[in-house]
Write a structure and sequence with these properties.
Chain lengths: ~1000, ~450
């Protein structure tokens, strides 16, 4: 048990520090709180004895407070009020006396005394020495996204948010300070009220919006604040799971006072941001005929010498000449519709004396822009806190939600993906007798039939909650224990009928994920002589996650009305189970000298069932320091500079998202001809461990002109080492690779943010700007060139950013003969010869060079107006479908983009689109022709609101009523040629990013809503 | 001092809870078997044997591309225009195989996975002390491993073997591990590969029983040996071993050809990859050839000419196994979705022996003619009166159509009649490339 020694000693020291004695006689503290500038009294300001919030009072209507029955002694008396700087005064109280202490407090434009949630505790913003971004509830409420994290886009620096597509229930990709892994996850750790929650998709079937993250279970209206721990100093308290950053979500709690009801409602319509132009029937016939004629004249073509009659005979799926000439279907229109979203949220919060509560119920109904795609969520939250006495309090918070997601295939799998490609405009929806045309013979090209044939719905129920007890051993030493759970149950029903297949097939899949977590901490906080702020924390955390899946599949139904798998004459079933756990010990100590010198050290020791027995435990230390220069006398003379803090930190965090049981040598089980079999699936590696990231952060926070302008700057270097690599071994050994911790990757970047209160009179105008730049470079992967998780030609290779492409440089079309030209990398000359091995070069970057947001807020009397621009500059998107539908698959039953109308036709034509050739091998060439600069600037959000004047509200017996209209994604400025530059294909990963393959587009929405408080 | 007591109470409770907490680190893998438990008993060995067959069933091997890759490289299929032809398949049609071709790469890795599993089983047998491991069972397990190792090595030898350089494929007869020099084998010569394959099959034939619940038998090993001798051009041995298979009287040519392509192997099938309704072998082949599954491939004009003009409808191989659907011809050999895929059939043994005899006894074609006519008459055609090589070749082409023979057979005959390209049989464009990742990790491998 030697490992506890350090912690025990630490705890003992803490407790000795905290001992103080008490006597029976009491005294009274009273005084007045006023605004330093205006001299007006401040009703509602809180005054309390440090460490004894029970001994506190709120200022009355005249700003007067009285604290009675105080045990005599020397105290630090604190005055705090939202929007004002905290003020601390030393008080000496003698038994039986009344001491008067008045407070003149200053407005705090920079919100330096705002409480920021850090791991296992809170800190005031001014005391923070690491890099943490905070986003408050009002910034993410009422934005029509199913995943709350999508609303973080453009709100804070260093956090790159990409909505994969605009589907109802679609996924979100988040990167905090870049991607730092190849085979482990790059998603941040999410923690809700202290409980780590699992993320990811539990859906089957690629091509479906399977990234529908369980995060969509959370109602963003229940969130009070989101803190993003970006640097290692902030995140290292979460040790082995923190290398991708940590997102701390604090949900709403009740506030003392009479019951306040909040009702929020909005309704909105949505549409795609842009519709892709593909050929209509007339253009399709004319261009395919041109390709046919071109090939028929080419002695090297299999079409050589063929006639127009052959062309008509060659039409697919039984389309005849007559049908082709009399049909014109816009299949994209067949798969799209106008979306409609409604959301209603009702909450009640309040509390009297010792009990506070928050209760909410919400309903979200999103009808997506893709036919058949819907998402519904019902959710409720209950939070209850009870103060038993000055020392003991307990509470609970429970979120329960149910989602219903109707899924539709996309991308290569069907739906809109097929509509823009294999659904030919010359193919009718119905045949002459009213049946679906080519339902079984066209390979799902008839997407209307496909949709009719499919019924695919996922029901999810999630349960997230915790209970806690908190006991003050001394006024400065707090013991807290909490147990939380995060559980998710999913039932996925899929039925594919006989419109498309000979035999209907149905599946029923159940997923059950259960996790529990306990955190036990001792927290010490005390100010000595009003100069030395000391804080310390020690704790233990345990986490367990178990996942179970069962799937039943049935086919060949006894009767078409019985579509459960049980009704099938052939049934198969399978199950899956996995589990992992973490045990962690952690400690943190902080010291602040005289409000200006700040230091924090923390360490975490993590063990995980995922690591090999030889490497089961790891240490994750961090240290950070800050210096508030503006507190120094020599800086006080600089009038315009109201606040200046420099800070620096270094720490080590880990990435343990390496999969379960990967260190074990394993044999899988299988069967052949009804007999059981086994085979090697994984080679053992008892040394397997976490990936490690060392991160240095240097930052600066400032306030100018009494805080009217404030901002900050961060520079970081994050070096990931021991990165998991599938190290290739000769396959003649029977294995392909072994997972080892050997790779290295760097992320370096700068972040900048600025808040400016441009106008502060009756017309208020403020501007928030944030900018981030991250540079990723793979420094060591043992010389391997690792291809992406999916098609798209992204690679990981040394000396380049992860996900850079390897493509042949396209050099346009030879004006003489219309053939495509490429750059021969040996000679640098243009060539018609295709040689990928010789000519492929590393190009592009799927991640933006600079991204961020600019938000402007205006308010005048009851009106508020704001608009947010987000941007991502210097990013590329590879249109992996481009090679098919910009000429490549013209003879292969693919519709084409209208860009091919500019094809080469006669000698001398200068264009980028080659001569049309039937079934051209050109369709397999990955070139820079399809690598687009996908930089964009987008009007992400624009809101106009009106709040009823207080007098009218009072007359209506309500507290507040605001109505608003909001638009999202209303404008997009980009040169990107595809649907929308913000895109990720269905199976993206760490390497495969910035790739689209018939992927669904983003949506724009317009909504009206109201916020009512009564 | 009250505080101290409280603190110690909490620490005390904590120290009781802690050991319980660390249980979170002891998670058990319940989906897969840990390697320590894999080879301790007969069950371990036996299930590992089944594991080999399971891999052989895969779409990259006997469940698809052992047959279809050769077809796409060969003369007798074309893109049907129905199913979507992927990049890797296009390369085969274009005779432009690259080292990153995923079909050949995956054939390579799966083949060696099986060879390794066979070697692991063979290496572990001596250490198993289970009393249930009787000599009969031990012989049978060894025999199956040798058979599988030989058959797989032979199939990949035909795709990667380079007649120009004489290089075959790496020959592995024991587990190599992943580090050390033996993990980086060179390519053995084609000659050495034949020697090893023949030795394995001979030993397998000795050790395997005559029946073995639809897995490898003595006769499966003998039949494969017939194929191997035939391809090696060792006609005397080919004749001998073919005769022993034919005279075993275990197999009969069927009258109704679709019987060869059903879930239950036909009477003439000597070895097949089995399907059950929940564990099919033929999905990949269905995708290539079955019209209702969106057949990617359909018979080329060249083979249609042979079928239509050499025999016509009287030939059951046309009337029973080809169908004109819509506006195109399709083969119906792989039309059953739960069919067992025939790997070697008695008809092939007759045709092997026919050609062996044709070569052995050039002046006396009677025996060869009898073998060929045995097949012809069973397929509904009149017996031939005279024999030419062309006739033998047509019979073989029609009989083994899309069963993984034609492409290799043309190269065996050193014919250069590949459609549209006229590449000589030893042109490296007709050979699979060694996967680039293999060359990267094993510098001893020489590319084709």
């Amino acid at each position: 048990m030697h490992k506890f020694k350090l912690i025990r000693t630490f705890v003992l020291v803490l407790s000795l520090l905290a001992i103080y004695s008490a006597t029976a006689q009491t005294g009274t503290i009273k005084g007045k709180v006023i605004d330093k500038r205006s001299g007006e009294s401040l009703p509602g300001a809180n005054v309390f004895i440090e460490g004894h919030t029970f001994f506190g009072a709120s200022a009355d209507i005249n700003g007067i407070f009285t604290i009675q029955n105080v045990v005599p002694g020397r105290y630090a008396l604190i005055c705090s009020f939202t929007g004002y700087k905290r003020l601390l005064k030393d008080v000496q109280l003698v038994a039986g006396q009344t001491v008067t202490v008045d407070f003149e407090i200053e407005e705090d434009k920079m919100m330096l005394d705002e409480v920021v949630v850090v791991g296992y505790g809170t800190k005031r913003k001014r005391d923070i020495t690491s890099s943490i971004a905070k986003v408050k509830s009002q910034d993410i409420e009422n934005i029509p996204v199913t995943n709350f994290n999508a609303a973080l886009q453009g709100k804070a620096p260093g956090i790159q948010v990409t909505q994969d597509n605009g589907m109802a229930g679609g996924g979100v990709t988040i990167r905090i300070r870049g991607t730092s892994s190849i085979y482990a996850s790059s998603e941040p750790l999410y923690i809700v009220d202290g409980v780590p929650i699992f993320t990811g998709s539990f859906g089957t079937g690629t091509g479906f919006p399977d990234k529908a993250n369980v995060l969509s279970q959370l109602n963003s209206n229940d969130i009070e604040s989101i803190e993003v721990l970006k640097d290692a100093a902030a995140a290292a308290i979460y040790g082995a799971r923190a290398a991708n950053g940590v997102i701390l979500i604090t949900t709403k709690k009740g506030k003392e006072g009479k019951t306040v009801f909040n009702f929020d409602y909005y309704a909105g319509i949505s549409d795609v941001t842009k519709k892709l132009d593909v050929l209509n029937a007339e253009q399709y016939l004319s261009l395919t005929q041109e390709a046919w004629t071109n090939s028929a004249a080419d002695p090297n073509s299999p079409q050589f010498g063929k006639t127009m009659d052959d062309y008509w005979a060659n039409l697919p799926f039984g389309i005849t000449k007559k049908i082709a000439q009399n049909t014109s279907v816009d299949w994209i229109d067949q798969s799209l519709r106008k979306g409609f979203t409604q959301s209603a949220n009702l909450s009640a919060s309040g509390g009297s004396g010792k009990t506070t509560y928050y209760v909410s119920g919400a309903y979200l109904d999103e009808k997506g822009v893709l036919e058949g795609n819907n998402f519904k969520r019902f959710s409720t939250k209950m939070s209850l806190n009870q103060k038993v006495n000055e020392k003991f309090q307990f509470g609970t918070s429970i979120n329960i939600s149910k989602t219903i997601n109707n899924r539709v295939p996309t991308g290569w799998a069907g739906g809109l993906g097929t509509a823009q490609s294999r659904s030919l405009p010359i193919m009718p929806i119905y045949d002459s007798v009213g049946n679906y045309f080519g339902a079984r013979t066209s390979g799902k090209a008839n997407i209307v039939a496909e949709r009719e044939n499919l019924d695919y719905v996922a029901h999810g129920v999630s349960l997230l909650g915790h209970i806690y007890g908190e006991y003050k051993i001394t006024p400065y030493l707090k013991f807290r224990s909490e147990i939380g759970t995060d559980a998710y149950y999913q039932r996925e029903r899929k039925y594919e009928g006989t419109i498309l297949y000979e035999d209907a097939i149905s599946s029923d899949r159940r997923v059950q994920v259960e996790s529990w977590n306990s955190n036990t901490t001792l927290n010490f906080e005390r100010t000595f002589n009003a100069k030395h702020d000391v804080s310390a924390l020690a704790g233990i955390s345990v986490y367990e996650n178990r996942q179970y899946e069962v799937e039943l599949v049935g086919t060949k139904y006894a009767n078409p009305s019985l579509t459960n798998p049980n009704g099938g004459t052939i049934q198969t079933g399978s199950d899956y189970e996995s589990a992992y756990g973490f045990v962690s010990y952690f400690a943190r100590a902080g010291y602040t000298y005289n409000n200006r010198l700040l230091a924090t050290v923390n360490i975490r020791r993590d063990g995980s069932s995922r690591f090999g027995p030889d490497n089961r435990w790891g240490y994750f230390p961090a240290v950070s320091m800050g210096y508030i220069l503006s507190e120094e006398r020599f800086m006080k003379d600089i009038e315009w500079l109201s606040f200046l803090k420099i800070r620096g930190s270094y720490g080590i965090t880990g990435n343990a998202e390496i999969g379960n049981f990967r260190y074990l040598g394993l044999y899988y089980t299988t069967k052949y001809n009804n007999e059981p079999g086994i085979g090697v699936s994984n080679l053992s590696n008892p040394e397997l461990g976490w990936e490690k990231s060392g991160q240095l952060d240097i930052g600066l926070d400032f306030g100018i002109l009494d805080g009217r302008i404030s901002g900050g700057f961060d520079y970081y270097i994050k070096k990931t080492s021991d990165m998991l690599l599938q190290v290739n071994v000769p396959q003649t050994s029977g294995s392909s690779s072994i997972t080892r911790n050997v790779g290295k990757m760097d992320n370096t970047g700068v972040e900048f943010f600025l808040t400016s209160n441009n106008l502060i009179g009756r017309l208020k105008w403020s501007t928030d700007i944030n900018l981030s730049r991250n540079k990723n470079e793979i420094t060591d992967i043992e010389g391997q060139i690792i291809s992406g998780e999916n098609y798209g030609n992204n690679f990981a290779q040394e000396g380049h950013p992860i996900g850079a492409w390897r493509l042949v440089e396209y050099a346009g079309v030879n004006p003489e003969n219309g053939k495509p030209l490429f750059i021969n990398q040996l000679t640098g000359e243009k060539t018609e010869e295709w040689n990928y091995d010789r000519d492929a070069v590393v190009v592009g970057n799927p991640y933006p060079e600079i991204f961020g947001g600019v938000n402007n807020n205006f308010s005048y009397q009851g009106f508020d107006f704001s608009f947010l621009f987000t941007f991502a500059l210097g990013q590329d998107v590879y249109r992996d479908d481009g090679k098919f539908f910009e000429g490549g698959k013209i003879g292969s039953n693919w519709n084409q983009m209208t860009t091919i109308l500019d094809r080469w036709q006669t000698a001398g034509d200068v264009t980028d689109i080659p001569k049309l050739v039937w079934e051209d091998t050109y369709s397999t060439y990955n070139t820079t022709q399809y690598l687009d600069d996908a930089s964009y600037v987008r009007l992400k959000n624009i809101v106009l609101g009106y709040t009823l004047p207080q007098k009218v509200a009072d007359r209506l017996k309500i507290q507040k009523l605001r109505i608003y209209v909001m638009g999202t994604n209303m404008l997009t400025f980009t040169d990107y040629k595809g649907w929308d530059p913000e895109v990720n294909r269905d199976a993206s990963g760490n390497i495969t990013q910035g790739v689209t393959y018939l992927s669904p587009p983003q949506i724009k929405t317009f909504q009206i809503g109201l916020n009512l408080q009564f | 001092m009250k505080t101290i007591y409280k603190l110690f109470t909490i620490l005390f409770i904590g120290s009781i809870l802690l050991p319980a907490c660390e249980k979170a680190l002891d998670m058990e893998q319940k989906m897969e078997l840990s390697e320590e438990l894999a080879f301790t008993s007969v069950i371990g060995l036996q299930t590992a044997v089944i594991g080999m067959y399971d891999r052989m069933q895969g779409g990259d091997l006997y469940g698809g591309n052992f047959q279809a890759a050769g077809d796409m490289l060969g003369d007798f299929v074309k893109k049907s225009g129905e199913g979507n032809i992927v990049y890797e398949e296009t390369q085969m049609f274009d005779k432009n195989l690259t080292p990153d071709n995923r079909i050949s790469a995956s054939m390579w890795s799966n083949a060696y996975w099986i060879v390794n599993q066979a070697n692991v089983i063979l290496a572990n047998i001596p250490a198993v002390t289970d009393p249930e491991l009787t000599p009969a069972i031990k012989n049978r397990i060894e025999g199956e491993c040798l058979f599988v190792r030989a058959a797989i090595t032979f199939e990949i030898l035909r795709y990667w073997g380079n007649p120009k350089t004489g290089l075959g494929v790496p020959l592995l007869t024991k587990p190599t591990g992943i580090i050390g020099d033996d993990a980086k084998p060179s390519r053995a010569t084609i000659e050495a590969c034949y020697t090893q394959i023949i030795a394995d099959l001979n030993k397998a034939m000795d050790q395997l029983p005559e029946t073995n619940s639809q897995r490898a038998t003595k006769w499966a090993a003998a039949a494969y040996l017939s194929r191997v001798y035939f391809y090696k051009g060792d006609y005397p041995n080919c004749e001998i071993i073919s005769t022993s298979v034919i005279e075993s009287n275990k197999f009969d040519l069927v009258d109704s050809l679709p019987l060869n392509y059903l879930p239950e192997p036909g009477k003439e099938t000597i070895f097949a990859i089995m399907s059950t309704k929940t564990d099919g072998s033929s999905g990949t082949l269905n995708g290539y050839y079955r019209k209702a599954s969106g057949a990617k491939l359909s018979p080329s004009n060249d083979i249609l000419k042979i079928f239509l003009f050499s025999g016509g409808d009287a030939d059951k191989r046309k009337s029973q196994l080809l169908a004109f659907i819509g506006s195109k011809w399709f083969s119906t050999k792989y039309d059953d979705r739960y069919m067992s895929v025939p790997v070697i059939r008695l008809a092939e043994i007759y045709l092997n022996r026919a050609e062996a005899r044709f070569n052995l006894y050039p002046t006396n074609p009677t025996l060869a003619l009898a073998d060929m006519n045995m097949v012809r008459t069973k397929r509904g055609l009149p017996a031939e009166m005279s024999l030419t090589f062309k006739k033998l070749e047509y019979e073989r082409t029609k009989e083994l159509y899309i069963e993984g023979d034609q492409f290799h057979n043309y190269r065996r005959l050193q014919k250069s009649s590949m459609s549209n390209y006229n590449l000589p049989y030893d042109d490296s464009r007709l050979m699979f490339k060694i996967p680039q990742r293999e060359i990267d990790v094993n510098p001893n491998l020489v590319q084709n």
